[in-house]
Amino acid sequence: MKYSLEEVVNHLKTQGFVFPGSEIYGGLANAWDFGPLGIEIIRKLKNLWWKFFVTKSKYNVGLDSAILMNNNVWKASGHLGNFSDPLLDCKKCQTRMRADKLIEEKYPNINCGGWDNKQLTDFINNEQIACPHCGAHDFTDIRQFQLMFQTNQGVLQDEKSIVYLRPETAQGIFVNFKNIQRSLRKKLPFGVGQIGKSFRNEITPGNFIFRTREFEQMELEFFYDPADQTDWFSYWVQQVKIFLTTIGLKSENYVLREHDPKELAHYAKRTIDIEYKFSFGQGELWGIADRGDFDLKSHSDYSHQNLSYLNPETNEKIIPHVIEPSVGVGRLLLALLADSYEVEKIGENDSRVVLKLSPLLTPYQIAVIPLSKQLNEQAYQLYETLLNDFDCTYDETGNIGKRYRRQDAIGTPYCITYDFDSLTDNAVTIRDRDTMEQIRLAISELPAYLKEHLK
Ligand code: ATP
Protein backbone atom coordinates (compact mmCIF):
# COMPACT_ATOMS: atom_id res chain seq x y z
CA MET A 1 0.00 0.00 0.00
CA LYS A 2 1.87 3.05 -1.32
CA TYR A 3 -0.52 5.72 -0.07
CA SER A 4 -1.29 6.60 3.54
CA LEU A 5 -4.45 5.16 5.06
CA GLU A 6 -5.64 8.70 5.71
CA GLU A 7 -5.41 9.63 2.03
CA VAL A 8 -7.29 6.53 0.89
CA VAL A 9 -9.96 6.94 3.61
CA ASN A 10 -10.51 10.58 2.64
CA HIS A 11 -11.03 9.56 -0.94
CA LEU A 12 -13.45 6.77 -0.01
CA LYS A 13 -15.49 9.08 2.22
CA THR A 14 -15.78 11.92 -0.26
CA GLN A 15 -16.67 9.63 -3.16
CA GLY A 16 -19.44 7.79 -1.29
CA PHE A 17 -17.81 4.41 -0.59
CA VAL A 18 -17.77 4.53 3.22
CA PHE A 19 -19.25 6.96 5.78
CA PRO A 20 -18.65 7.22 9.53
CA GLY A 21 -21.50 5.46 11.35
CA SER A 22 -24.16 7.70 13.04
CA GLU A 23 -22.19 10.72 11.81
CA ILE A 24 -24.84 13.39 12.49
CA TYR A 25 -24.71 12.42 16.19
CA GLY A 26 -20.95 12.63 16.37
CA GLY A 27 -20.46 9.03 15.28
CA LEU A 28 -19.92 5.81 17.20
CA ALA A 29 -16.35 4.69 17.74
CA ASN A 30 -15.18 2.58 14.83
CA ALA A 31 -18.61 2.07 13.30
CA TRP A 32 -18.75 2.57 9.55
CA ASP A 33 -21.57 2.57 7.02
CA PHE A 34 -20.99 1.43 3.46
CA GLY A 35 -22.28 4.02 1.01
CA PRO A 36 -23.81 3.50 -2.44
CA LEU A 37 -20.47 2.75 -4.11
CA GLY A 38 -19.03 0.67 -1.26
CA ILE A 39 -22.04 -1.62 -1.07
CA GLU A 40 -21.89 -2.34 -4.81
CA ILE A 41 -18.30 -3.59 -4.45
CA ILE A 42 -19.22 -5.59 -1.36
CA ARG A 43 -22.17 -7.24 -3.10
CA LYS A 44 -19.98 -8.21 -6.03
CA LEU A 45 -17.19 -9.44 -3.76
CA LYS A 46 -19.58 -11.62 -1.76
CA ASN A 47 -21.17 -12.98 -4.95
CA LEU A 48 -17.75 -13.86 -6.36
CA TRP A 49 -16.75 -15.57 -3.10
CA TRP A 50 -20.03 -17.49 -3.02
CA LYS A 51 -19.69 -18.56 -6.63
CA PHE A 52 -16.07 -19.66 -6.18
CA PHE A 53 -16.33 -21.37 -2.78
CA VAL A 54 -19.95 -22.61 -2.90
CA THR A 55 -21.93 -22.71 -6.17
CA LYS A 56 -19.08 -23.61 -8.50
CA SER A 57 -17.28 -25.87 -6.06
CA LYS A 58 -17.55 -29.62 -6.63
CA TYR A 59 -17.57 -30.16 -2.89
CA ASN A 60 -19.34 -27.34 -1.12
CA VAL A 61 -22.82 -26.14 -0.18
CA GLY A 62 -24.04 -23.00 1.58
CA LEU A 63 -25.77 -22.04 4.82
CA ASP A 64 -27.22 -19.01 6.57
CA SER A 65 -27.41 -19.68 10.29
CA ALA A 66 -28.71 -17.45 13.10
CA ILE A 67 -26.57 -14.89 14.90
CA LEU A 68 -28.02 -15.72 18.32
CA MET A 69 -27.31 -19.27 19.42
CA ASN A 70 -27.74 -21.51 22.46
CA ASN A 71 -25.11 -20.56 25.06
CA ASN A 72 -23.83 -24.13 25.14
CA VAL A 73 -22.50 -23.54 21.63
CA TRP A 74 -20.04 -21.01 23.07
CA LYS A 75 -19.09 -23.32 25.93
CA ALA A 76 -18.38 -26.16 23.51
CA SER A 77 -16.49 -23.94 21.08
CA GLY A 78 -14.30 -22.61 23.87
CA HIS A 79 -15.38 -19.00 23.32
CA LEU A 80 -16.82 -18.64 26.82
CA GLY A 81 -13.57 -19.88 28.29
CA ASN A 82 -10.84 -18.82 25.91
CA PHE A 83 -12.07 -15.97 23.76
CA SER A 84 -10.46 -13.09 25.55
CA ASP A 85 -7.61 -10.66 25.00
CA PRO A 86 -4.93 -9.44 27.46
CA LEU A 87 -6.01 -5.96 28.49
CA LEU A 88 -4.14 -3.26 30.40
CA ASP A 89 -4.73 0.42 31.17
CA CYS A 90 -2.28 3.30 31.27
CA LYS A 91 -2.67 4.66 34.82
CA LYS A 92 -1.74 8.16 33.69
CA CYS A 93 -4.02 8.76 30.70
CA GLN A 94 -6.43 5.85 31.24
CA THR A 95 -5.95 4.59 27.69
CA ARG A 96 -7.00 0.97 27.43
CA MET A 97 -5.02 -1.30 25.11
CA ARG A 98 -4.10 -4.85 24.26
CA ALA A 99 -0.81 -5.84 25.87
CA ASP A 100 0.24 -8.00 22.91
CA LYS A 101 -0.48 -5.20 20.41
CA LEU A 102 1.45 -2.67 22.58
CA ILE A 103 4.54 -4.86 22.16
CA GLU A 104 3.97 -5.79 18.51
CA GLU A 105 3.44 -2.18 17.45
CA LYS A 106 6.77 -1.16 19.06
CA TYR A 107 8.62 -4.28 17.85
CA PRO A 108 7.06 -5.28 14.48
CA ASN A 109 9.30 -8.36 14.23
CA ILE A 110 7.94 -9.84 17.45
CA ASN A 111 4.77 -11.90 17.47
CA CYS A 112 3.40 -12.44 20.97
CA GLY A 113 0.56 -14.76 20.03
CA GLY A 114 0.71 -17.54 22.63
CA TRP A 115 2.53 -15.52 25.33
CA ASP A 116 0.94 -15.69 28.76
CA ASN A 117 0.26 -12.62 30.90
CA LYS A 118 3.52 -13.02 32.84
CA GLN A 119 5.61 -13.11 29.66
CA LEU A 120 3.81 -10.02 28.35
CA THR A 121 4.23 -8.12 31.64
CA ASP A 122 7.92 -9.04 31.95
CA PHE A 123 8.64 -7.93 28.38
CA ILE A 124 6.80 -4.60 28.80
CA ASN A 125 8.70 -3.93 32.05
CA ASN A 126 12.12 -5.08 30.85
CA GLU A 127 11.89 -2.98 27.69
CA GLN A 128 10.27 -0.09 29.60
CA ILE A 129 7.63 0.18 26.86
CA ALA A 130 5.77 3.48 27.15
CA CYS A 131 2.10 4.28 26.57
CA PRO A 132 1.81 5.32 22.89
CA HIS A 133 -0.63 8.07 23.88
CA CYS A 134 1.05 9.88 26.81
CA GLY A 135 4.53 8.35 26.99
CA ALA A 136 4.22 7.13 30.60
CA HIS A 137 5.37 3.68 31.68
CA ASP A 138 2.79 3.09 34.37
CA PHE A 139 0.34 0.29 33.57
CA THR A 140 -2.24 -1.71 35.52
CA ASP A 141 -1.83 -5.49 35.77
CA ILE A 142 -2.94 -7.39 32.69
CA ARG A 143 -6.38 -8.97 32.90
CA GLN A 144 -8.27 -11.06 30.38
CA PHE A 145 -11.15 -9.30 28.62
CA GLN A 146 -14.11 -11.27 27.22
CA LEU A 147 -14.60 -10.37 23.56
CA MET A 148 -18.17 -11.59 23.05
CA PHE A 149 -20.97 -9.03 23.09
CA GLN A 150 -23.58 -9.97 25.64
CA THR A 151 -27.29 -9.17 25.49
CA ASN A 152 -30.56 -10.49 26.92
CA GLN A 153 -33.24 -12.47 25.19
CA GLY A 154 -36.90 -12.16 26.27
CA VAL A 155 -38.62 -9.92 28.79
CA LEU A 156 -36.56 -10.84 31.87
CA GLN A 157 -33.05 -9.52 32.14
CA ASP A 158 -31.42 -12.06 34.41
CA GLU A 159 -28.58 -14.59 34.27
CA LYS A 160 -30.75 -17.08 32.42
CA SER A 161 -31.70 -14.67 29.64
CA ILE A 162 -28.11 -13.86 28.66
CA VAL A 163 -27.24 -14.59 25.03
CA TYR A 164 -24.23 -13.62 22.96
CA LEU A 165 -23.81 -12.15 19.50
CA ARG A 166 -21.77 -14.69 17.56
CA PRO A 167 -18.07 -13.82 17.29
CA GLU A 168 -17.67 -16.00 14.18
CA THR A 169 -20.04 -17.64 11.70
CA ALA A 170 -18.23 -21.00 11.89
CA GLN A 171 -20.13 -22.41 14.88
CA GLY A 172 -23.45 -22.16 13.00
CA ILE A 173 -21.91 -24.54 10.46
CA PHE A 174 -20.61 -27.04 13.02
CA VAL A 175 -23.94 -27.34 14.84
CA ASN A 176 -25.66 -27.96 11.49
CA PHE A 177 -23.11 -30.53 10.30
CA LYS A 178 -25.46 -33.49 10.78
CA ASN A 179 -28.50 -31.66 9.33
CA ILE A 180 -26.60 -30.80 6.15
CA GLN A 181 -24.87 -34.14 5.76
CA ARG A 182 -28.12 -36.08 6.20
CA SER A 183 -30.54 -33.89 4.28
CA LEU A 184 -28.22 -33.52 1.28
CA ARG A 185 -26.82 -37.06 1.64
CA LYS A 186 -23.32 -35.55 1.44
CA LYS A 187 -20.30 -37.80 1.39
CA LEU A 188 -16.92 -36.71 2.72
CA PRO A 189 -15.13 -34.62 1.73
CA PHE A 190 -17.54 -31.71 1.61
CA GLY A 191 -17.58 -28.13 2.79
CA VAL A 192 -20.13 -25.60 3.99
CA GLY A 193 -19.76 -21.91 3.20
CA GLN A 194 -21.41 -19.05 4.99
CA ILE A 195 -21.37 -15.25 4.76
CA GLY A 196 -22.64 -13.26 7.71
CA LYS A 197 -22.15 -10.69 10.44
CA SER A 198 -19.96 -11.38 13.45
CA PHE A 199 -19.37 -9.25 16.51
CA ARG A 200 -16.33 -8.86 18.75
CA ASN A 201 -15.96 -6.31 21.48
CA GLU A 202 -12.42 -5.54 20.34
CA ILE A 203 -10.31 -3.62 22.84
CA THR A 204 -8.50 -1.64 20.21
CA PRO A 205 -10.50 -1.49 17.02
CA GLY A 206 -9.09 0.79 14.38
CA ASN A 207 -7.25 1.36 11.15
CA PHE A 208 -10.54 2.26 9.50
CA ILE A 209 -12.45 -0.91 8.50
CA PHE A 210 -9.49 -3.22 9.25
CA ARG A 211 -10.66 -3.97 12.78
CA THR A 212 -14.24 -3.15 13.72
CA ARG A 213 -16.56 -4.51 16.38
CA GLU A 214 -19.28 -5.43 13.92
CA PHE A 215 -18.00 -7.04 10.75
CA GLU A 216 -18.89 -9.56 8.12
CA GLN A 217 -17.09 -12.84 7.52
CA MET A 218 -16.93 -15.26 4.62
CA GLU A 219 -16.09 -18.65 6.07
CA LEU A 220 -15.77 -22.15 4.68
CA GLU A 221 -15.65 -25.22 6.92
CA PHE A 222 -14.37 -28.13 4.86
CA PHE A 223 -14.96 -31.58 6.39
CA TYR A 224 -12.79 -34.56 5.41
CA ASP A 225 -11.83 -38.02 6.57
CA PRO A 226 -8.44 -37.84 8.36
CA ALA A 227 -7.51 -41.08 6.60
CA ASP A 228 -7.83 -39.25 3.26
CA GLN A 229 -4.32 -38.86 1.84
CA THR A 230 -5.10 -35.59 0.01
CA ASP A 231 -3.36 -32.56 1.46
CA TRP A 232 -6.57 -30.54 1.88
CA PHE A 233 -4.84 -27.82 3.86
CA SER A 234 -2.51 -26.98 0.94
CA TYR A 235 -5.42 -27.37 -1.47
CA TRP A 236 -7.44 -24.64 0.28
CA VAL A 237 -4.43 -22.34 0.68
CA GLN A 238 -3.98 -22.67 -3.07
CA GLN A 239 -7.69 -22.03 -3.75
CA VAL A 240 -7.59 -18.86 -1.65
CA LYS A 241 -4.58 -17.64 -3.66
CA ILE A 242 -6.40 -18.39 -6.92
CA PHE A 243 -9.43 -16.46 -5.66
CA LEU A 244 -7.26 -13.48 -4.72
CA THR A 245 -5.77 -13.49 -8.23
CA THR A 246 -9.27 -13.70 -9.74
CA ILE A 247 -10.36 -10.58 -7.89
CA GLY A 248 -7.16 -8.80 -8.86
CA LEU A 249 -5.24 -8.49 -5.58
CA LYS A 250 -1.56 -8.05 -6.39
CA SER A 251 0.41 -11.03 -5.09
CA GLU A 252 3.48 -8.87 -4.36
CA ASN A 253 1.41 -7.04 -1.74
CA TYR A 254 0.73 -10.02 0.49
CA VAL A 255 2.69 -12.80 2.19
CA LEU A 256 1.86 -16.18 3.69
CA ARG A 257 2.80 -16.55 7.35
CA GLU A 258 2.71 -19.90 9.12
CA HIS A 259 1.79 -19.66 12.83
CA ASP A 260 4.37 -20.68 15.34
CA PRO A 261 2.94 -23.67 17.35
CA LYS A 262 2.90 -21.48 20.48
CA GLU A 263 0.59 -18.86 18.93
CA LEU A 264 -1.98 -21.32 17.57
CA ALA A 265 -5.57 -20.73 18.71
CA HIS A 266 -6.98 -23.33 21.13
CA TYR A 267 -8.81 -25.16 18.32
CA ALA A 268 -6.07 -25.13 15.68
CA LYS A 269 -3.44 -27.71 14.74
CA ARG A 270 -1.96 -25.56 12.01
CA THR A 271 -2.66 -22.06 10.66
CA ILE A 272 -1.38 -20.04 7.74
CA ASP A 273 -2.37 -16.40 7.55
CA ILE A 274 -2.34 -14.43 4.35
CA GLU A 275 -1.07 -11.08 5.52
CA TYR A 276 -1.54 -7.95 3.45
CA LYS A 277 1.07 -5.18 3.49
CA PHE A 278 -1.15 -2.29 4.61
CA SER A 279 0.40 1.17 4.93
CA PHE A 280 0.02 0.90 8.72
CA GLY A 281 1.79 -2.47 8.83
CA GLN A 282 1.39 -6.08 7.76
CA GLY A 283 -1.89 -7.53 9.01
CA GLU A 284 -3.95 -10.72 8.76
CA LEU A 285 -6.26 -10.71 5.79
CA TRP A 286 -7.30 -14.33 5.47
CA GLY A 287 -6.71 -17.12 7.99
CA ILE A 288 -6.55 -20.75 6.89
CA ALA A 289 -6.70 -23.09 9.88
CA ASP A 290 -6.58 -26.84 10.31
CA ARG A 291 -9.11 -27.24 13.13
CA GLY A 292 -8.67 -31.03 13.31
CA ASP A 293 -11.65 -32.72 14.97
CA PHE A 294 -11.86 -30.11 17.75
CA ASP A 295 -15.26 -28.64 16.87
CA LEU A 296 -17.32 -31.71 16.02
CA LYS A 297 -15.84 -33.62 18.96
CA SER A 298 -16.52 -30.82 21.36
CA HIS A 299 -20.09 -30.30 20.13
CA SER A 300 -20.69 -34.07 20.34
CA ASP A 301 -19.51 -34.03 23.96
CA TYR A 302 -21.53 -30.97 25.02
CA SER A 303 -24.73 -31.76 23.10
CA HIS A 304 -24.61 -35.55 23.71
CA GLN A 305 -25.49 -35.90 20.03
CA ASN A 306 -23.50 -38.19 17.83
CA LEU A 307 -21.83 -35.98 15.23
CA SER A 308 -19.73 -38.74 13.74
CA TYR A 309 -19.84 -39.76 10.08
CA LEU A 310 -20.43 -43.28 8.90
CA ASN A 311 -18.10 -44.09 6.03
CA PRO A 312 -20.39 -45.99 3.60
CA GLU A 313 -17.48 -47.96 2.15
CA THR A 314 -15.74 -49.11 5.32
CA ASN A 315 -18.75 -48.90 7.66
CA GLU A 316 -16.47 -47.12 10.07
CA LYS A 317 -17.61 -44.20 12.21
CA ILE A 318 -15.25 -41.24 12.28
CA ILE A 319 -15.23 -37.64 13.45
CA PRO A 320 -14.38 -35.59 10.34
CA HIS A 321 -11.49 -33.14 10.42
CA VAL A 322 -11.94 -29.54 9.32
CA ILE A 323 -10.00 -27.01 7.24
CA GLU A 324 -11.26 -23.44 7.61
CA PRO A 325 -10.43 -20.57 5.28
CA SER A 326 -11.92 -17.45 6.89
CA VAL A 327 -11.83 -13.84 5.73
CA GLY A 328 -13.45 -10.56 6.74
CA VAL A 329 -15.39 -8.78 3.99
CA GLY A 330 -14.33 -5.32 5.22
CA ARG A 331 -10.68 -6.31 5.50
CA LEU A 332 -10.65 -7.75 2.01
CA LEU A 333 -12.39 -4.64 0.69
CA LEU A 334 -9.78 -2.42 2.37
CA ALA A 335 -6.95 -4.48 0.86
CA LEU A 336 -8.55 -4.27 -2.60
CA LEU A 337 -9.10 -0.53 -2.39
CA ALA A 338 -5.60 0.10 -1.08
CA ASP A 339 -4.21 -2.15 -3.80
CA SER A 340 -5.97 -0.32 -6.60
CA TYR A 341 -5.76 3.33 -5.48
CA GLU A 342 -3.29 5.32 -7.60
CA VAL A 343 -2.45 8.95 -8.07
CA GLU A 344 -1.09 9.25 -11.59
CA LYS A 345 0.73 12.19 -13.08
CA ILE A 346 -0.73 13.05 -16.46
CA GLY A 347 0.98 15.88 -18.26
CA GLU A 348 3.11 18.65 -16.74
CA ASN A 349 0.84 20.02 -14.04
CA ASP A 350 -1.98 17.53 -13.91
CA SER A 351 -2.71 14.34 -12.05
CA ARG A 352 -5.63 12.01 -11.61
CA VAL A 353 -6.82 9.60 -8.93
CA VAL A 354 -7.68 6.28 -10.47
CA LEU A 355 -9.06 3.18 -8.80
CA LYS A 356 -7.65 0.31 -10.82
CA LEU A 357 -10.09 -2.24 -9.45
CA SER A 358 -10.94 -5.38 -11.37
CA PRO A 359 -13.98 -4.73 -13.62
CA LEU A 360 -15.56 -7.68 -11.78
CA LEU A 361 -15.80 -5.48 -8.71
CA THR A 362 -16.27 -1.86 -9.76
CA PRO A 363 -19.51 -0.16 -8.66
CA TYR A 364 -20.26 0.66 -12.31
CA GLN A 365 -19.01 -1.06 -15.43
CA ILE A 366 -19.85 1.86 -17.72
CA ALA A 367 -20.56 5.57 -17.52
CA VAL A 368 -22.56 7.17 -20.33
CA ILE A 369 -21.58 10.79 -20.92
CA PRO A 370 -23.23 13.27 -23.31
CA LEU A 371 -20.66 15.66 -24.81
CA SER A 372 -23.09 18.57 -24.70
CA LYS A 373 -26.35 19.38 -22.96
CA GLN A 374 -28.04 19.29 -26.34
CA LEU A 375 -27.31 15.57 -26.53
CA ASN A 376 -28.72 14.67 -23.11
CA GLU A 377 -31.84 13.05 -24.46
CA GLN A 378 -30.09 10.71 -26.91
CA ALA A 379 -27.34 9.84 -24.42
CA TYR A 380 -29.92 9.09 -21.74
CA GLN A 381 -31.70 6.73 -24.11
CA LEU A 382 -28.43 4.90 -24.73
CA TYR A 383 -27.88 4.71 -20.96
CA GLU A 384 -31.34 3.19 -20.48
CA THR A 385 -30.65 0.56 -23.16
CA LEU A 386 -27.25 -0.38 -21.73
CA LEU A 387 -28.74 -0.61 -18.24
CA ASN A 388 -30.47 -3.82 -19.35
CA ASP A 389 -27.13 -5.60 -19.66
CA PHE A 390 -24.59 -3.61 -17.68
CA ASP A 391 -24.12 -1.78 -14.37
CA CYS A 392 -24.27 1.77 -15.72
CA THR A 393 -24.22 5.32 -14.48
CA TYR A 394 -25.13 8.46 -16.37
CA ASP A 395 -23.17 11.68 -15.87
CA GLU A 396 -24.14 14.98 -17.46
CA THR A 397 -22.68 17.54 -15.06
CA GLY A 398 -19.38 19.42 -15.42
CA ASN A 399 -16.96 19.55 -18.31
CA ILE A 400 -16.03 16.33 -20.06
CA GLY A 401 -12.54 16.18 -18.51
CA LYS A 402 -13.98 16.46 -14.99
CA ARG A 403 -16.48 13.73 -15.72
CA TYR A 404 -13.72 11.39 -16.91
CA ARG A 405 -11.74 12.13 -13.72
CA ARG A 406 -14.79 11.43 -11.58
CA GLN A 407 -15.29 8.03 -13.20
CA ASP A 408 -11.55 7.22 -12.93
CA ALA A 409 -11.72 8.05 -9.24
CA ILE A 410 -14.49 5.53 -8.60
CA GLY A 411 -12.98 2.89 -10.88
CA THR A 412 -15.47 2.83 -13.80
CA PRO A 413 -13.63 0.81 -16.48
CA TYR A 414 -15.29 2.45 -19.53
CA CYS A 415 -16.73 5.86 -20.31
CA ILE A 416 -18.96 6.06 -23.37
CA THR A 417 -19.25 9.52 -24.85
CA TYR A 418 -22.15 10.47 -27.07
CA ASP A 419 -21.18 13.41 -29.33
CA PHE A 420 -22.63 15.35 -32.26
CA ASP A 421 -21.25 12.85 -34.79
CA SER A 422 -23.16 10.10 -32.98
CA LEU A 423 -26.37 11.66 -34.27
CA THR A 424 -25.41 10.77 -37.83
CA ASP A 425 -22.89 7.91 -37.65
CA ASN A 426 -24.59 5.98 -34.81
CA ALA A 427 -21.21 5.49 -33.19
CA VAL A 428 -19.75 6.52 -29.81
CA THR A 429 -16.33 7.00 -28.24
CA ILE A 430 -15.19 4.47 -25.65
CA ARG A 431 -12.51 5.58 -23.22
CA ASP A 432 -10.48 3.02 -21.30
CA ARG A 433 -9.91 3.87 -17.60
CA ASP A 434 -6.37 2.53 -17.36
CA THR A 435 -4.84 3.56 -20.68
CA MET A 436 -7.12 6.59 -21.23
CA GLU A 437 -7.14 5.56 -24.88
CA GLN A 438 -10.27 6.22 -26.90
CA ILE A 439 -11.74 4.28 -29.79
CA ARG A 440 -14.78 4.86 -31.95
CA LEU A 441 -17.34 2.08 -32.18
CA ALA A 442 -20.79 1.59 -33.73
CA ILE A 443 -23.50 1.57 -31.06
CA SER A 444 -24.73 -1.77 -32.44
CA GLU A 445 -21.31 -3.31 -31.64
CA LEU A 446 -21.14 -1.88 -28.11
CA PRO A 447 -22.73 -4.73 -26.12
CA ALA A 448 -20.47 -7.42 -27.64
CA TYR A 449 -17.36 -5.24 -27.20
CA LEU A 450 -18.17 -4.45 -23.57
CA LYS A 451 -19.07 -8.03 -22.68
CA GLU A 452 -15.74 -9.20 -24.07
CA HIS A 453 -13.68 -6.51 -22.33
CA LEU A 454 -15.43 -6.63 -18.95
CA LYS A 455 -14.85 -10.34 -18.47
P1 ATP B 1 -6.87 -10.66 14.43
O1 ATP B 1 -5.62 -11.39 14.84
O2 ATP B 1 -6.64 -9.59 13.40
O3 ATP B 1 -7.72 -10.20 15.59
P2 ATP B 1 -8.19 -13.17 14.27
O4 ATP B 1 -7.04 -14.12 14.12
O5 ATP B 1 -8.84 -13.03 15.58
O6 ATP B 1 -7.79 -11.73 13.68
P3 ATP B 1 -10.04 -14.87 12.96
O7 ATP B 1 -10.75 -15.22 14.19
O8 ATP B 1 -9.13 -15.87 12.33
O9 ATP B 1 -9.27 -13.49 13.16
O10 ATP B 1 -11.13 -14.34 11.91
C1 ATP B 1 -11.06 -14.65 10.53
C2 ATP B 1 -11.03 -13.40 9.68
O11 ATP B 1 -12.07 -12.49 10.06
C3 ATP B 1 -9.75 -12.58 9.83
O12 ATP B 1 -8.75 -13.08 8.98
C4 ATP B 1 -10.20 -11.20 9.40
O13 ATP B 1 -10.18 -11.07 7.99
C5 ATP B 1 -11.64 -11.15 9.88
N1 ATP B 1 -11.73 -10.44 11.17
C6 ATP B 1 -11.50 -10.92 12.41
N2 ATP B 1 -11.72 -9.98 13.35
C7 ATP B 1 -12.10 -8.86 12.68
C8 ATP B 1 -12.47 -7.55 13.09
N3 ATP B 1 -12.53 -7.21 14.36
N4 ATP B 1 -12.80 -6.65 12.13
C9 ATP B 1 -12.78 -6.99 10.82
N5 ATP B 1 -12.44 -8.22 10.38
C10 ATP B 1 -12.10 -9.15 11.28
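^ adenosine-5'-triphosphate complex. Residues 168, 200, 202, 211-212, 215, 217, 284-287, 326-328, 330-331 surround adenosine-5'-triphosphate (CB under 6 Å). The longest helix spans residues 36-55.
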